[in-house]
């Protein structure tokens, strides 16, 4: 009998040991491991690019130039250097190099504010060689344009991911000084002043669209009605009948034009929750605009043309837009509110032919900016409705974009290099499902996969590493206080979210980590100790007791 009991105990121990180790075979985590490799490459490339651009900073001011190889190397431009490049250098440093984030990145912000603020806090183009502004007198409409670009394209995304920071303070002081410029420019049309039939044909739509996006999000962030009223005053121009975009002889659907469509949809979402009566007043005109864009603005593959005559339906520029997802963000957001199935269907129509017709596609003449916008378009919408074919396309096209980076870390040597960083970070956050390991190191590879209600994580380093594994939170609620997480331009999507009010069960190949954790504990971070080059595998699921 004693022998039987002893044997039974041994069998039970063996079964328990076997189950635990069976649970963490590397092949079960193959996708998480692969995702870790891809995320690591995206992060390495982003930090290398950031450090490469810093080598070309102006020696005296520390500000980064617009380009590296022509006369614009002598200038820091608000709408380019500040809006498109510098903020994503900040984000790369925030995630990957804390000393750089707290040091040089913050120094640049202080210097920029000191040297480039021209109309109150609003910046203007600064020339390194003269240590003066490029223009002798401030061009108010250009200052308005540059400031709106800087806030919407650069500072607002930083707020959405980081939350409170000195960059958010910079954003708010600029936004609150913009009415001063608007009052000066009251009644002035921006179209001709910003390029006429050339680069900025739809500049007024660009600025107005950017302001609608900014004001809608800042209204939720602050709860201050003045921002909502300001946004409504802009929307009235388009949806109140004064300027019907469905009757436009030149409606630009690519960037520098499509912003107004996204902006109107963002305000529409806001009004659904705070002013349903006004939302209802705008509904028919917004639906008419979105319907018209789908009706005459797409090719047979569901992809959008650069520009159309929305009045006649004639295509004015038949090139395909790289920012197709920016337009679909607007449609999908309205679908979330009104349940109009055609707007959701447009997403699936657009991605249907990506693998067969739009691999290695000449977005903007194969520019890095074109690839960044196209991949961002896919990531943001995939987050809402995952699709296997779209995943394959993104994994393929990110490699095309990455191969544009030179050995010295520079991509094109022009300000859209920042978009390379932005999209690489978006891609890496997807591959890690929003988890992060701090302090980051080049040999540290962590990836994640959500499978059957569990989050599977793989963490590995070539040499010993100790740090924290942190989990993402509901940033749309905690930072912006949004009622729903609708898709929007330049956001960093949320993947696996730790809910502060729930409990989670964690099991790991490192049994010291096993146990129950609150959402707060996951967000704060779990200490991980890699003593050698063996990976740590982790599975997390909601506690059934929730």
Q: What does this molecule look like?
A:
The chain is of the alpha+beta class and 546 residues long. It has 18 helices and 16 strands. A five-stranded antiparallel β-sheet has the order 10-11-16-13-14. Strands 1-4-5 form a three-stranded antiparallel β-sheet. Helix 3 (78-96) packs antiparallel against helix 4, helix 3 (78-96) packs parallel to helix 5 and helix 5 packs antiparallel against helix 6 (166-184). The longest helix is centred in the first third of the chain and has 25 residues, at 30-54. The chain is globular, with a radius of gyration of 25 Å. The two termini are 43 Å apart.
The SS-based structural class is alpha+beta
Roughly how many Å is the radius of gyration?
25 Å
Order of strands, widest sheet: 10-11-16-13-14
What's the average pLDDT?
91
Uncertain regions spanning at least 5 consecutive residues: 1-22, 187-202
Instruction: Report the end-to-end length measured between terminal Cα atoms.
Output: 43 Å
Share of β-strand residues? 5-15%
| Percentage of residues in helical conformation | 40-55%
- The shape is globular
Number of strands: 16
**Counting H and I runs of at least 4 residues, what is the number of helices?**
18
| Largest beta-sheet details | 5 strands, antiparallel
InterPro entries: 6-hairpin_glycosidase_sf (IPR008928)
List its salient traits:
546 residues, alpha+beta, 5-stranded antiparallel sheet, 3-stranded antiparallel sheet, 16 strands, 12% strand, disordered N terminus
């Amino acid at each position: 009998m004693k022998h039987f009991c002893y044997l039974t105990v041994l069998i039970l121990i063996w079964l328990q040991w076997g189950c635990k180790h069976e649970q963490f075979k590397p092949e079960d985590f193959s996708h998480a491991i692969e995702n870790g490799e891809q995320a690591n490459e995206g992060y390495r490339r982003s930090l290398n690019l950031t450090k490469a651009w810093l080598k070309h900073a102006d020696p005296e001011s520390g500000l980064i130039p617009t380009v590296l190889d022509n006369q614009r190397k002598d200038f820091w431009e608000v709408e380019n250097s500040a809006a498109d490049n510098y903020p994503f250098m900040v984000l790369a440093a925030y995630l990957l190099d804390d000393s750089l984030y707290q040091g040089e990145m913050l120094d640049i912000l202080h210097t920029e504010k000191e040297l480039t603020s021209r109309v109150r806090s609003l910046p203007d183009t600064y020339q390194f060689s003269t240590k003066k502004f490029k223009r002798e007198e401030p061009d108010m409409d250009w200052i308005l344009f540059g400031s709106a670009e800087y806030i919407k394209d650069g500072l607002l995304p930083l707020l959405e991911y980081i939350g409170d920071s000195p960059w958010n303070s910079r954003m708010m002081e600029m936004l609150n000084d913009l009415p001063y410029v608007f009052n000066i420019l009251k009644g002035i049309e921006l179209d001709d002043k910003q390029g006429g039939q050339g680069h900025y044909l739809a500049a007024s739509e660009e600025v107005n669209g950017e302001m609608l996006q900014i004001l809608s999000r800042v209204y939720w962030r602050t709860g201050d009605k003045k921002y909502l009223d300001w946004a409504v005053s802009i929307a009235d121009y388009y949806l109140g009948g004064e300027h019907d975009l469905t009757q436009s002889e030149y409606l630009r659907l690519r960037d520098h034009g499509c912003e107004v469509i996204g902006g109107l949809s963002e305000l529409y979402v806001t009004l659904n929750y705070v002013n349903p009566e006004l939302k209802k007043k705008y509904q028919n005109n917004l639906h008419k605009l979105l319907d018209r864009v789908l009706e005459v603005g797409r090719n047979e593959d569901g992809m959008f043309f650069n520009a159309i005559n929305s009045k006649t339906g004639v295509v004015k520029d038949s090139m395909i837009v790289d920012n197709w997802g920016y337009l679909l963000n607007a449609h999908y957001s309205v679908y979330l509110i009104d349940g109009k199935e055609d707007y959701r269907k447009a997403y699936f129509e657009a991605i249907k032919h990506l693998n067969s017709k739009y691999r290695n596609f000449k977005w903007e003449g194969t520019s890095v900016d074109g690839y960044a916008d196209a991949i961002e378009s896919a990531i943001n919408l995939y987050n809402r409705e995952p699709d296997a074919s779209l995943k394959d396309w993104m994994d393929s096209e990110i490699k095309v974009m990455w191969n544009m980076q030179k050995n010295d870390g520079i991509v094109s040597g022009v300000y859209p290099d920042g978009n390379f960083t932005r999209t690489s970070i978006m891609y890496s956050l997807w591959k890690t499902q929003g988890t992060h390991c701090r302090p980051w190191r080049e040999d540290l590879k962590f990836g994640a996969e959500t499978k059957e209600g569990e989050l599977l994580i793989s963490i590995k380093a070539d040499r010993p590493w100790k740090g924290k594994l942190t989990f993402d939170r509901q940033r749309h609620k905690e930072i912006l206080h949004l009622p729903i997480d609708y898709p929007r331009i330049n956001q960093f999507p949320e993947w696996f979210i730790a809910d502060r009010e729930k409990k989670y069960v964690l099991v790991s190949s490192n049994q010291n980590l096993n146990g129950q954790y609150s959402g707060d504990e996951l967000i704060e971070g779990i200490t991980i100790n890699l003593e050698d080059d063996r990976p740590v595998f982790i599975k997390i699921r909601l506690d059934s007791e929730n």
